[in-house]
Amino acid sequence: MNKDANFHLFGQLNTEFNTITAMIDLYCLRHHQPNTGKFQRCADCEQFRTYVKQRLDRCPYGEKKPSCKQCPIHCYKPQQKLKSQTIMRYSGPKMLVKHPIMAIRHLIHDKRAVPERNKKMTSNYKTRKALLNNR
Ligand SMILES: [Zn+2]
Q: Model pTM?
């Protein structure tokens, strides 16, 4: 794993990251695997996954993060946004069969209203740095 991605996401953010990881892997499994019978995420998808993690880390809503679909902040670069849409379109419908609990949680989260931003909201990044400084 990329060294910059070796950090922890808290609560909801980690749940969301696990869900997205499952979606990336479903996509990668179908599109990028050589016929070795053993799954290993390709370099491109691994890099994208790291990008996703870094965006989640910096999301100013922190654990109150709305679903990306509804979010007023568009934080993905165009290329990564395109990759994300491609993966969601392919893996979204498959998630209900492969990972039903994650899928249902994701669907419920998608419907939730975007919260009002307030000062109590802190990004995962700031929370991590605060914890480090208090050690
Ligand atoms: Zn891949």
A: 0.90
